[in-house]
Amino acid sequence: MEKISATLALLGILSLFCQWLGWKLRLPAILPLLIAGLLLGPGFSVLDPDALFGDLLFPIISLGVAVILFEGALTLNFKEIKDHGRMVTNLVSIGALITMGICALASHYIVGFSWEIALLFGALICVTGPTVIVPMLRTVRPTAKLASILRWEGIVIDPLGALFAVLVFEYIAVASDSTTHMLTALGLMLSIGLGIGAISGYLMGIILRRNLLPHYLQNTAVLTIMLGVFVGSNLLQEESGLLTVTVMGIWLTNMRGVDIGEILEFKETLTVLLISALFILLAARLDSDAMLSLGWGGLVLLLVVMLVARPISIWFSAIGTSLKTNEKWFLSWVAPRGIVAAAVSSLFAIKLEALGYEGASQIVPLVFLVIIGTVVIQSLTAGTWARKLGVAAGSNQGILIFGASKFARELAKVLLAREYRVVLADSNWDNIRLARMDSIPVYFGNPASEHAENYLDLTGVGRVFIISPYRQMNPLVSFHFQDIYGVDKVFGLNSAEAVSARHQMSETYVKRLSLFGEHMSYAKLSSMVARGAVIKTTNITESFTFEHFVKRYGDGALPLLYIKDKKLHVITGNTKNTIPHDVELISLISAHALLEAKGVDALEQSQQHAQPISKEPTAEG
């Protein structure tokens, strides 16, 4: 018992370290987790999951996979699939079937799998997943369109690919039972999986929509009920539980009027822990002899997956889309396999070995070989490939603004009109709704959350503005993005209001709160906008210098940003009075200053009558 406790504690510490290492190195965490498992298991024989957990190992893996599939299913919103274009829709349907078919054929003829095992392998290997795609995109930085396609393909194919694999496995499991008519058994399994999944998803949605549970119990209740449904479905019909919980998650996320935001965030946090520990256990179970026995056949199959199946699926899926040739070639190279393939293949291999299927023991090492090969090779080469094809995004001039107030929305519209990428993030739905009405890209929720890791599209973003009234969240968001972009790329407003000792911010953090000026706070910005201040652009030239601008508007003008040579420069307390020539200045000007400037202009014109103005006119928008 003490050995099991010590092992579980070690798994927790290793999981945390591997997740941190992946984040620090900007690599998918699956790589450190895989290395840790291989070192503990086949490497140094420190961890033997089968001997340590005995009969408990299979239930642990089963429940872990059930949670992973349910969490993945919660992300499968059919409306969002349609919203992200024809290419994504084609990739997760036509493209997935093409990949599955080619991989099945290759594994049958190259490795010698039976047709049943080959089809299962093909279904497992068509899954990419956001846990491996998102870290890679942050390093590679392709254009926004390509990043969006890859990210949403990973999000959608995660549950769909797992569902394909579950259906294929259930067919194999039913076909192996000679005492039961195959069609009857398969029909019963599908009926129970689809029926109970839909009913339980609907009932869970009703409970959440009508607030029949207190808020603090909702996350725990959904997890507990889901596990109960999984076990109950398996009792009614063996092997139907995974299909049931997948359908349950899909039904729940597509119900109207059901907010699953917090549930999804809780499940993602839980899944990170489960994925980490489970993946170390699964990697530790790998047989080094089985990996070596794959030989050249395994390597040839890896090449088929990367160089044949993926390009063919991309080019067929791109028919009828506006993708260019270089964009298709880039997409053809990037398709790393992830956690779902590893977890589901390990679970199915255990079950198929119990059923006596020949070749089932080779599924896991072959899937892990594909995971290692695609993640390592593509992580190292995708950036160079993107630059060679001319699809790299270049310097990230875009801005993520935390806080979607009226000021932030007006600033975003000015920047978007000049073709700079801007994303507004806020946990206030009214602000998000108003931003959407202005066609501004938004993220509803905490941008520093696990959910945002997968769903907040930061393609082209290189700086973060903290412009929100949430004083407790602001430091958390600031520190989170300092780790991603660096300290000098995250800017915040000062807070002139006194706060309690409990909520005092560190001195080093306060020093960085000089966005738009040392003493500019959220309250002052909001007050200016409420009194009619507007955001205007002004050309600062040699004939109309920044000193002229200050003289014209006085203290009623607040410089925000300036554009020089198509690059955005942020104005802070340190740079406020150092605006160069030949720039486009973006500033917030009070209604009073605008009226006074117009009055001065009218007076000068009346004094000069129709005489031409000697100085170059100011260009303002």
From TrEMBL:
This is Sodium:proton exchanger. One of its GO terms (cellular component) is plasma membrane. GO terms for biological process: proton transmembrane transport. It is a multi-pass membrane protein. The chain crosses the membrane at residues 6-23, 30-47, 53-76, 88-111, 117-137, 149-173, 185-204, 216-235, 270-286, 298-318, 330-350, 362-380. It comes from the Bacteria. GO terms for molecular function: antiporter activity.
